[in-house]
Amino acid sequence: MILVLAGTTEGREVTGLLQREGMAVSTAVLSPYGAELLPHKDGNGLVGPLDRERLKGWINIKDIQAVVDATHPFALQISQLAMRVTAEMSIPYIRLERPQLELPRHPLVKTVDRLEQMEAYFQAGQSVFSTLGTNHLEQLLKMAVRQKARLIARVLPLADVVGRCAEAGLSPDQIIALKGPFSQELNQHLFLHSGADLILSKDSGQVGGLDSKIQAALALEIPIVVWLRPTLDYPLLVNSASEVIDYLRIWRNQ
């Protein structure tokens, strides 16, 4: 059986491909919403945070023969955990990561390596439009308060997510609860409607809609700050679900 650490478009795609190849698949996702998006819902998976003991226990119970890590490029802790556990248990680890987008060389496109570096671009009286989700919401709010800026958060339209925004102190007009994908035109409309003066995004690749956000920001002449994805030394890194299948075919036939 193959374990897919999912929760992304790539995770859903590779899970479906593995099933079509006739391979037994188990999945692990962080949230029930992530589980709902998977191509199969047979209960053969984990939902919720993973630690070393839970991951090792699941690998033993399900006789997992290989782990495909298709988590988000910014989910460092789970990738590091998966690499450690697979090394301890001597099973293959395959990192499936969406290709990076080549960022345009433009004065309005800024890059940072860490979240806190974004604060340097906040200005008093500005509306800062965040597409970073809710994981860093409290830190972003503190940054906005320090710089006397107004934060707007685009988040998933889920009750617990919107509730988290409200609990953090965002008013209804600071919350845009929508599910992507977002075209350039829709991004432009949202940026204009919210009065955005600055856009924040992760380096989430084309799959994550980074290209359409950049195009929309440049069309409106609004600066966009991109949080560059962190890098890890993966034992095996591929950029497509088909490459995972190719590797596992060879590995299975050895």
TrEMBL record:
Among InterPro entries, the record links this protein to:
Precorrin-6x_reduct
Q: Hey, which pathway is this one from?
A: Cofactor biosynthesis; adenosylcobalamin biosynthesis
The molecular function terms in GO held by this entry are: precorrin-6A reductase activity
Query: Quick check: keyword Ion transport in the entry?
Result: no
PROSITE patterns, per this entry?
A: COBK_CBIJ (PS51014)
Iron is among the record's keywords: no
Q: Which residues cross the membrane?
A: none
Q: Name one GO biological process term.
A: cobalamin biosynthetic process
Provide this UniProt record's keywords sorted from A to Z.
Cobalamin biosynthesis, Oxidoreductase
Q: Kindly provide the name given to this protein in its UniProt entry.
A: Cobalamin (Vitamin B12) biosynthesis CobK/CbiJ, precorrin-6x reductase
User: From which lineage does this chain's organism come?
Assistant: Bacteria, Bacillati, Bacillota, Clostridia, Eubacteriales
